[in-house]
Amino acid sequence: MALSHHIIKPLHGHRGGVAILFALCLPVLIGFAALAVDLARINLTKVELQNAADAAALGGARSLSDTGSYPNWSAATATALNVARRNFANDGHLIQDATINTGYRNNDPSIRVTIAISGTQNNGPLPLFFAPILGIAPKVIQASAVATITGGGGPFDYAIFSGSTSNNMSINGSSYNIKGSVHANKNLDINGSSITITGAAEARGTVTTNGSNLNIGSILPNDARDIPMPDQSASIAAAAAAAHQTYTGSKTINGSSITSNPIYVQGSPGTITVNGSSFTATGAVMADGNITINGSGAASGNSQVCFYSKNGNITLNGGSYALNGVLYAPNGSIFINGSSITVNGSIVGKKININGSSFKVDRTNYPITSLSLPGTNVQLVE
Known about the structure:
The chain has three helices and 18 strands. The protein is α/β, with parallel strands linked by helices.
């Protein structure tokens, strides 16, 4: 019996030690519980918010090409918010608030959606179960996504584009520097010397080259695509009417008279003559008939204009002329005559006729901002 008494007595001592040890470790155990439960809650909420932000950004980007001026920022913003509000986060609560920013990312129309759970947004702040015992305040959780829309330029993705399916496009001359690609909806003939095309020389039919010092990124004959030229005239005419810049007959415009609001000359003959080249706006100048551009000089800064002949031809005459923008004649010809002419943008017409020397086109470094070019490829980029 004495032996049993001596064995049990030390056990009482250990039992008390375990209780003390447990009391000392209890805060640590609670801390681990906070990490396990609250971190899992935070991570789940982050996933919910990220899914909502991704969906909202994609939905908003698709609406950038909704009816109206492109990019349609207001439609994109409204759609993104609407999509965000269909999602749940924070114990099954519907999302109500989102911060939406629109703009360009690498020259592509983009939309950023940020959704947060905080003290003032989306039923926040996020409540935590065990962390407050350790003095950890409720967390602010947020997620962000960016989506863009690309690939909508069609013919305007090219430095030079000929839309005729019955006429060849010929590039004849010397000292041509074309940054971008060239496309012909029939055959493409390149003749001359010191001609550089940094992108592709492509045609639905044949591509022939004759001359010396021809530097072409790639030659692509038998391209099966028949790329159509979009009709942008209705939206330009409507915007010109709203800005009270619609005229009838013929009109002469000085470069300084070009504004960011479209100018439209309608009727017969519906012609425009542009003298001089200095302008500081980004907009469209459209005529039902022919457009003739005379002068020399350069556009200022990031200004850009689209000269758009709805049914006629565009003729550019002069020397040492620099144009930021687009020459667009979907149903006519574009004639470029002179030397040291630079077009920072695109030349798009049913038929293209380029004669002269020291001619430059740079599509690679100049996004088209003077025309509505609805995109088709929507993707998340962040």
